[in-house]
Amino acid sequence: MDEVKNFPTMIIPNGTEVTVNEHGQLSIRTPGNLVIQNSGVYSVIESGNGSVRIDPEVKVEAVSIQAADSCFVAGELTAWRVRARSITLERGAQANIMLQESESLDLDRNSRLVGNFSSEKELYLMLGRFSRQLRELPENLNRRERVHQTQLSADTDGLPEIDANAANGQTPVEPHQRDEILSLARVILEREVGRPNTSDASRTALERLLEMVRSGELHMLDDGLAYQLSQVDDPSDELIKVGRLLKSLIVNEA
User: Fold this and answer.
1) In the structure, what pLDDT confidence band is assigned to residue 65 with cuts at 50, 70 and 90?
2) CA 56 to CA 7: how far, in whole Å?
3) Per-residue pLDDT at 172
4) What does the pLDDT read at residue 176?
């Protein structure tokens, strides 16, 4: 009986919302401070008026972390976006943050931060700028690591646009724009391939599209883009937009 009494007590404050999305990712939104002491995969972690803390030896993967005040990382964090007044990595902490929106960033000299872009547009432009280097990466890199990175949700707000004349093939697409679109297509397609609820038929079609995009040979895309996209069940908005952009490139180069 004494052992039962020693179990920790969990308190869920008033106003806290705990949900699970279709991918099995947990979302926690609470009005006050939030301390994460359990490793896991989360969709959203949000403190409406306080701070978020990830304790030592705790590994957290999250699509989005939002804190009105601060985000403290003492363990390991992988996140697409962290938005807080300040972000602090304590001694020994490791963080992979693609997009960070904060007024200040404080790193202990023994901590490690990877990523740290300030907006989707900055990230997309960087990927476009180094598209050739991305294409030259060895294909046998750890697949699980690549899928893990691309499962994080992507927003389409920063995707490049092609004007109407270029989309109709009347004016040429700039080389940097072409490379940028192909790089972004790779990012989106890799993420779609890694979705846990993707059917085998959809995954096969997406992998074939990814091969074509990696090759950079638009004539291959011309032969298979429409068909492969038609084989994808319930395509995401990002995939549909990437399909339109690739179609524009094909028309422009024909």
Assistant:
1) very high
2) 20
3) 55
4) 64
CB 22 within 8 A of CB 40: no
Residue-range domain boundaries for the chain: 2-118, 122-253
Beta bridge partners of 46: 29, 66
CB neighbour burial string for 106-138, b if at least 16 within 10 angstroms, e if fewer: ebeeebebeebbeebeebbbebbeebeebeeee
Q: For a pLDDT cut of 70, what percent of the chain falls above it?
A: 74
**Both tokens of residue 142?**
């750890």
Q: Residue 141 has what pLDDT?
A: 46
- Classify strands 26-30 and 17-20 as parallel, antiparallel or unpaired: antiparallel
Q: For residue 152, give the DSSP letter.
A: S
Pairing relation of β-strands 40-47 and 26-30?
Answer: parallel
User: Rounded CA gap, 128 and 197, in Å?
Assistant: 29
Q: What global pTM score does this model have?
A: 0.51
Token pair for residue 52? 């978020």
Looking at residue 144, its pLDDT comes to 40
CB count in 10 Å sphere of residue 145: 9
Return the beta strands (E) in the chain as ranges: 17-20, 26-30, 34-36, 40-47, 52-54, 59-73, 76-89, 94-101, 104-107, 112-117
Cβ contact 50:33 at 8 Å: yes
72-83 pLDDT, tens digit each: 999 999 888 899
Rounded-to-integer distance, Cα 168 and Cα 94, Å:
47
Distance CA 57, CA 93 (A): 9
228: left (phi over 0), alpha (psi -120 to 50) or beta: alpha
